[in-house]
Amino acid sequence: MKYFPAIVCLVCDSPIDALVALCVPRKEAMELVTASWWGDETSCIVATLHGGRPVAVLRTPEGRWAACNAFLDELFVTPQEAGRRLAELLRRGRRGYVGHVRRTPDAQ
């Protein structure tokens, strides 16, 4: 697994609502959520908006979904490393989480 920092924009009750809040078209949001159901319980969905900006929705400890700007330029080996980078990015009362993506077998 690889880890990344994510800054919260807002928190929603469902992953679809969180994706739509990030400007992902509703149909695409529904397809992303449906595709995420195939494995273990999903806690992170990553998308790239038109224009190339990465976003993520992350399940919060309370069970809601945080709509976040994702920082995928650097993926970290440990959640602690990503947490240190997140601490550098947070300012003025912003909140954030450390997200994760699974490495595919052919990923470097």
Describe this structure in words.
The chain is α+β, with helices and mostly antiparallel strands and 108 residues long. It has 3 helices and 5 strands; from the N terminus they run βααβββαβ. Strands 2-3-4-1-5 form a 5-stranded antiparallel β-sheet.
Task: Please render the helix and strand layout as text.
Blueprint: E1 2-12, H1 15-21, H2 26-35, E2 44-48, E3 54-59, E4 65-70, H3 79-89, E5 96-101
Antiparallel strand pairs: 1-4, 1-5, 2-3, 3-4
Helix pairs in contact: 1-2
Describe this protein with a few key phrases.
108 residues; globular; disordered C terminus; 5 strands; 5-stranded antiparallel β-sheet; alpha+beta
Radius of gyration: 13 Å
Task: Name the poorly predicted regions.
Answer: 104-108
- Report how far the terminal alpha carbons are from each other: 12 Å
Question: What is the domain total for the residues?
Answer: 1
Helical content stands at 25-40%
Offer a quick outline of the entry.
This protein is of the alpha+beta class and 108 residues long. Helix content is 26%, strand content 31%.
